[in-house]
Amino acid sequence: MSAPNEVPALVAAALDLSRQRGFITSTRNETGRLLAALAASRTGTLAELGTGCGVGSAWLSTGAPKGSRIVSAELDPALAEVVQKLFAEVENVEVTSGDWSTLEKYAPFSLLFVDVHDVKRSVDMVADLMAPGGIAVLDDFTPSAFWPPIYEGRVDTVREEWLTDERFTAVEVLIDAGASVIIATRR
Ligand SMILES: C[S@@+](CC[C@H](N)C(=O)[O-])C[C@H]1O[C@@H](n2cnc3c(N)ncnc32)[C@H](O)[C@@H]1O
Q1: Total count of domains within the chain
Q2: Which ligand 1 atom sits closest to the C-alpha of 73?
Q3: Tens-place pLDDT, residues 98-124
Q4: By three-state DSSP, how is residue 84 classified?
Q5: Model's pTM, two decimal places?
Q6: Which residue minimizes the CA distance to atom 24 of ligand 1?
Q7: For the domain that residue 25 is a member of, what is the CATH number?
Q8: Do the Cβ atoms of 39 and 67 come closer than 8 Å?
């Protein structure tokens, strides 16, 4: 174990909400700590696509420096409302109800955590939302020992595109033996 066992209080509250709602796709702690560490290097506006129960937003909030803010969009309006309540007293987090287009007006982003499967395919859309030097974090890949990367017997064209797009300098980072994220910095 190379990280503290305890998580920040706001993250614990979001994890409790996930458990209460039986929401099983919340961000894992390893990814959350990575988000917090990256957020600490950012200024301006950080964003998340796919709020879920607010775990990623909570990690971003604990890492982000004073004066920065986090906006997060959740497609499910009922879930967005519950998470808005969770963050009601948290100054630097705003949760919106809707898809990525509700975030457009807050762009450009110094960091964007993309946690919606379909949006991961949209390199063009993400590229347009990022500030120069902004960091996109794409969650939920499965490590592959091959190039081009293979997932379930096929070339993973989404990952291939992220790792070769000339608008980004990108790297795949292992979260554990079975999970990875892509970190892509906008040129
Ligand atoms: C993997 S979960 C997000 C987990 C969350 N980021 C966290 O840190 O725990 C994906 C969430 O994205 C939401 N979602 C799906 N499509 C979306 C879209 N087009 N725009 C915004 N949210 C979306 C789902 O309702 C779900 O709550």
Answers
A1: 1
A2: 21
A3: 998 999 999 999 999 999 999 999 999
A4: helix
A5: 0.97
A6: 50
A7: 3.40.50.150
A8: no
81-96 pLDDT, tens digit per residue, is 999 999 999 999 999 9
DSSP of 12-77, one letter per residue?
HHHHHHHHHHT---PPPHHHHHHHHHHHTT--SEEEEE--TTSHHHHHHHHHSPTT-EEEEEES-H
Radius of gyration of the CA atoms of the chain, in A: 16
The protein residue with its alpha carbon nearest to ligand 1, atom 27, reads: 52
Q: Is the CB of 134 under 6 A from ligand 1?
A: no
Domain boundaries, position 97? 9-140
The closest-lying atom of ligand 1 relative to the alpha carbon of residue 79 is 27
Task: Specify whether the CB–CB gap between 114 and 120 falls below 8 A.
Answer: yes
- The whole-angstrom separation of Cα 34 and Cα 159 is 19
Ligand 1 contacts CB of residue 19 (under 6 A): no
